Amino acid sequence: MLRVILLIGALAVSPVAHAAGGGGEKLPNEHWSFEGPFGTYDRGALQRGYQIYSQVCSACHSMKYLSYRNLSALGYSPDEVKAIASQYTIIDGPDDEGEMFERPGKPSDRFKAPYANDNAAKYVNNGALPPDLSLITKARPNGANYVYGLLTGYEDHAPEGEELATGQYWNKYMDGHKIAMAPPLADEVVAYEDGSATTLDQYARDVTQFLTWAAEPEMEVRKRTGIKVLLFLSIFAFIMWRVKKKIWKNVKY
Ligand code: HEC
Fold first, then answer.
1. Which end of the chain has fewer beta carbons closer than 10 Å to its terminal beta carbon, N or C?
2. Residues in contact with ligand 1 (CB, 6 Å cut-off)
């Protein structure tokens, strides 16, 4: 009985489909702290992941559904969030004279986008559009393993018989294998303050955890609620079973 309840619980709370990646290559199957019915995000990994996003990925990728104040969920204090937001210059306006003006970012501002519009983004990226990363782990099947795989899945050369155009790179997990994103990460490119390994593998894991949180910030609450509901339902079912026995006790077949 317990096993059945746990199984139903696991199915109910985990929407992860184990589909293969678009590249045909089987995706890595990493262990993530946020997997499973009791999974939670690792605050340290989220903060490091935000650091990777802000120091590397944000040069090309927007995250338009996030505001700086959302970062408080990563464990930053209100003052730290204010300090992070104020590092960015936001264009606001129009003012009383009808002019747009620049001001430091506030916690309520959305993450600043790297390009003014999609055409500008394509123009500087060889015609390829760097997608918004707010929901990327939901937009791709088996998203966390896909993003991790993509970041670690570059090959130095295309296989024999394959041609890469300028600005294209060979990636094991990209759909069609040809990707217009240069390998964004490599060992030692970002300095961590908490003593974590400064390796490509660690960076990829951390930024994947951050992007998974961004796509589903309510996941922990959702799972906790699911567990509570299941617990309530099983206790309620037990009580109802006892009630039924009691009511029908004296009735002969
Ligand atoms: C120099 C610009 C640049 C940087 C920096 C960069 N990207 Fe990209 N990224 C791109 C471009 C351009 C594409 C579109 C590639 C294509 O369609 O071939 C892309 C595509 C992607 C995709 C989507 C692949 C798909 O399935 O369509 C993901 C995921 C991604 N990048 C993640 C990241 C992450 C995470 C980082 C930071 C560690 C990062 N990128 C840094 C330019 C960049």
1. C
2. 52, 56-57, 59-61, 125, 128, 130-131, 136, 140, 147, 150-151, 179-182, 184-185, 207
Ligand 1 pocket test target in 61, 177, 200 with most atoms within 8 Å of CB: 61
- Residuewise pLDDT in 10s, the chain (253 residues): 566 666 666 655 554 444 444 456 899 999 999 999 999 999 999 999 999 999 999 999 999 999 999 999 999 999 999 999 999 999 999 999 999 999 999 999 999 999 999 999 999 999 999 999 999 999 999 999 999 999 999 999 999 999 999 999 999 999 999 999 999 999 999 999 999 999 999 999 999 999 999 999 999 999 999 999 999 999 999 999 999 999 999 888 7
Query: What is the distance in A from the centroid of ligand 1 to the CA of 236?
Result: 49
How is residue 23 written in tokens?
């590249």
Going by C-alpha positions, the residue among 153, 152, 155 that lies closest to residue 202 is 152
- Ligand 1 centroid–CA 181 distance in Å is 5
Q: Is the pTM of this model over 0.85?
A: yes
Q: Which domains, and CATH codes, for the chain?
A: 2-66+110-247 (1.10.760.10)
Identify each DSSP E strand in the chain by its residue range.
89-92, 101-104, 154-155, 169-171, 178-179
